[in-house]
Design goal:
The complex is a heterodimer of chains A (542) and B (110).
Chain A: H1 16-37, H2 44-49, H3 56-67, H4 70-83, H5 85-112, H6 117-121, H7 127-161, H8 166-217, H9 222-232, H10 249-265, H11 270-275, H12 282-313, H13 316-321, H14 329-378, H15 385-410, H16 415-439, H17 445-464, H18 497-513, H19 520-532
Chain B: H1 9-16, H2 19-52, H3 54-57, E1 60-62, E2 65-66, H4 67-109
Antiparallel strand pairs in B: 1-2
Helix pairs in contact in B: 2-4
The chains are: A mainly alpha (542), B mainly alpha (110).
Chain lengths: 542, 110
């Protein structure tokens, strides 16, 4: 590594053998639990929704395990360490977004649907076209999110296991993918949920211990920590907003666009929505979100301390020089505090994070392919439950293999951009239709199709012609474009949300008012069911 | 599945148009819509201040803690408070009413 000798590269700190051992133990324990949990995996409700038998608390912990991806653990801590306050802004958007899910979506969706997001969207509209559209946007969001996680795995490997060459990294991505496929095939939603619960507990405990440790070093005085972080950053105003986004009018607008996508995207993420079907009632769905909000909020408060702690105790120079750059802030801080052992534990948790999130995405994508596309569109609802689960298992393997290949190809790509794209699509293509379906009497099939396809196409098109894909040269300390030898960008912002989200809402309205379709009986059934819980799917009893 | 023909359309339509159901729906919307408007407005106020008023946000309040950090932590507090307010309201006010109506539908189906 081309780093100054005084600054340890992350590959020189810690012991890769210890890291791999701790991770191996985690995989063995979780696999054993997954196998145990799978003994009752018989029906479609078992495979897709864990028999709807999880409690609100269990599901809330699993949701936070699903949501706190490697991007938010390593990414946010690193962003705070390098860009200070602007990194903190991310975590606020990620948290506040949960209120949309709590107040407007979770309970109504739990009562009205069965396995997938499309169940709710197509409830009172024409089944096949709406299911197809909802499945396509589900797959698009899952695809970009999966790619981000798998690409992140490559970077983590370099950082934590000392694997520097591409072939070795590809091998590790492959191993991660195979373990994940095993979790999904053996355990279904039940096994996946348990993996997420265990991972969430480890992650939050680990971050909590590190937070107390850091604060302890500053006499439990936050102000001292902040002051020291400013000093170690060479007097850079890391406590003030604007370091990353305050440079020009375009970057400011970009930040507003990102904020919009974050706050409206969460309630449209299909793998988050699917988790609401794993509890027996809307009341437990509410409990889930309350637990998730507390855990996610507390975790983001930890990352604030960890980010400034890394800036102060490790120093921005050492972080920027390490392989993995900003992403290495939290692991380096762990090494600084607790040496090899704490680094090993935190590394294993980071790997477990990727594993759990990828498993959740895979089961969501395979459910959408088999329940929405195979059964409802191709078989017109006549496939048996056994057939559906068989197809879901097959598609899970295919998606897993695609994720491995995609992850190998995307290794080294900008993770934050892939995640932001997933959120922008969720907010532009999914959320308008979800809200219109639940709250707007007049909403109809044309509105849904225009909104989903319009939001999806607008978001993807703007991204393709934005600076994240082309036209941004490699400058130290800035994210460069994916393609370096071309420049065909005409959209000035990195995040398309500020345009594509209003477009999604507007097209939903326009499509609706230009079509006369209206199914009064199905709307009555959906509204009564959503609000009173009458006819809602019940838990499986074994 | 949502399409199961196990229920009578008229029962749903009748219930949907009943006064009790309209009241349940109104209560729900009167609680969640203003709260949603409130937290979104507060969130975007914070985002806009962070973007266009960095000087104000950089003002020191206590030691090295500045206005921006206080308002940012305020977003956490408001999120937790709204969560607890809603959960309490839903448990105490909404659930019993929804359950009563639910029982009525079950009866109508018998």
């Amino acid at each position: 590594m081309r780093v100054p000798t005084l600054v340890p590269a992350a590959t020189d700190v810690g012991s890769p053998t210890l890291n791999i051992t701790i991770f191996g133990v985690f995989v063995l324990i979780t696999l054993a639990i997954v196998v145990r949990a799978s003994t009752n995996n018989r029906t479609a409700a078992d495979f897709y929704a864990g028999g709807r038998a999880f409690t609100g608390r269990q599901n809330g912990i699993a949701i936070s395990g699903d949501y706190l991806s490697a991007a938010s653990f390593l990414g946010i801590a690193g962003a705070i360490a390098l860009n200070g306050y602007d990194g903190f802004l991310y975590s606020i958007g990620f948290l506040v977004a949960w209120l949309v899910a709590l107040l407007l979506v979770a309970e109504l969706l739990r009562n009205a649907g069965k396995y997938t997001m499309a169940d709710v969207l197509s409830f009172r509209l024409r089944q096949r076209p709406v299911r197809m559209a909802a499945a396509i946007s589900t797959l698009a969001v899952c695809f970009f999110y999966l790619l981000a996680q798998m690409a992140g795995a490559g970077g983590l490997v370099a950082l934590l296991l000392g694997v520097e060459d591409k072939a070795g990294q590809s091998l590790v991505i492959g191993v991660v993918g195979v373990i994940m496929i095993a979790y999904v095939l053996i355990g279904g939603m039940k096994g996946t949920t348990w993996v997420q619960i265990i991972k969430a507990v480890l992650l939050i405990l680990g971050a909590g211990v590190m937070t107390v440790w850091v604060l302890g070093k500053f006499g439990l005085n936050l102000s001292h920590l902040l002051g020291d972080a400013v000093q170690k950053s060479g007097g850079k105003p890391v406590l003030d907003p604007g370091l990353q986004y305050g440079k020009s009018g375009a970057t400011k607008l970009d930040f507003i666009s990102l904020s919009l996508a974050l706050v409206l995207g969460t309630a449209g993420l299909p793998h988050v929505l699917m988790r609401f079907y794993t509890v027996p009632s809307s009341r437990e769905a509410r409990r889930s979100v309350v637990w998730a909000i507390w855990l996610i909020g507390i975790f983001y408060l930890f990352t604030l301390v960890l980010g400034y702690g890394a800036a102060s105790l490790v120093g921005p120079k050492a972080i920027a020089a390490a392989p993995g750059k900003a992403n290495s802030a939290a692991p380096l801080l762990a090494f600084e505090l607790g040496g090899e052992v704490l680094l090993g534990l935190i590394s294993a948790v980071a790997f477990a994070t990727i594993l759990a999130v990828v498993a959740g995405l895979t089961i969501t994508a395979s459910a959408s392919l088999s329940h929405d596309i195979y059964n409802s569109v191709i078989k017109e609802g006549r496939a048996s439950a056994e057939d559906e689960v068989r197809v879901a298992r097959m598609t899970a393997v295919v998606i897993g293999i695609l994720a491995i290949l995609g992850g190998i190809l995307a290794n080294g790509q900008n993770i934050a951009f892939l995640v932001a794209l997933a959120f922008a699509i969720a907010a532009s293509a999914n959320l308008p239709t979800i809200l219109y379906s639940l709250f707007w009497k007049r909403f109809n099939t044309r509105g849904a199709l225009w909104s989903i396809y319009g939001g999806l196409v607008t978001a993807v098109t703007l991204i393709v012609f934005s600076p994240v894909v082309s036209g941004k040269p490699k400058i130290e300390g800035k994210s460069a474009s994916m393609l370096q030898n071309a420049d065909f960008h005409w959209f000035p912002l990195d995040n398309p949300g500020i345009i594509s989200i209003p477009v999604g809402f507007l097209l939903g309205w326009l499509g609706t008012v230009t079509s006369k379709e209206y199914n009064a009986a199905k709307f009555a059934e959906m509204e009564v069911r959503a609000l009173t819980g009458h006819g809602a799917e019940k838990a499986v009893s074994h | 599945m949502s399409n199961d023909a196990r229920t009578d359309d008229d029962v749903y339509l009748g219930l949907q148009q009943s006064e009790e159901f309209a009241e349940l729906r109104t209560r729900f919307r009167r609680f969640v819509f203003p709260l949603t408007a409130l937290f979104l407005a507060w969130y975007f106020l914070y985002v806009l201040l962070s973007t266009y008023a960095p000087g104000f946000m950089g003002h020191k309040v206590l030691g090295n803690v500045n206005v921006g950090l206080v308002l940012g932590l305020g977003q956490f507090v408001s999120t937790f408070v709204i969560t607890m307010l809603y959960a309490r309201w839903a448990d105490r006010e909404f659930d019993p009413r929804a359950a009563a109506l639910h029982a009525r539908v079950e009866e109508a189906h018998r």
